[in-house]
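Everyone, carefully examine this protein record:
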Amino acid sequence: AASARDLARAGRVPDVTVGAQAEHYPTSPSNQTGSGNSFGVFVSIPLYVRHSFGGEARRAEVDYYAALDDRNRVLLEAQNELERSRNQLEAARLSLKQMMEGVVPTAESVAGSAEFAYSKGASSVLDLLDSRRALRQTRLDAVTAQGEFAKSLAAYRAALQSSPNSQVRTDVPRP
């Protein structure tokens, strides 16, 4: 669009042409009178009487500013997408951190207490199985949170078009 605008602007400036010419006519069978030399100079100035390329220039200006608007819109959308991706990554990181530092240890503690109570005869088999089921579900939820974090991290890195060695916070404890 910028090149088209520059070309349209250049079209509004008349192209003045200046030239010189020299011709020599040697003696030949068809020209028996001998040599003749002629010299000439010419100047050409276009006169824009009815058409000055103003419409083309205005159209190129409109196209240029429309292209700038499109560029700015795309840049804004990209920044918004990057910010959304960054927010999703941070939310997934915090969720995983909470799961690994709070929920999973608590579920393991409860399951351990249920195992101990069952071994001493203080609880039933159903209570033991229920605590084991809850622990297994909690661990599955932790794995799901790890998967969500990994997907968010991959999406953020892809949005940045960065390498895996970029400075992105991945300091989440592993199970």
Remarks:
- The longest helix spans residues 54-119.
- Helices lie at 2-11, 54-119, 125-160.
- Residues 162-166 have pLDDT under 50 and may be disordered.
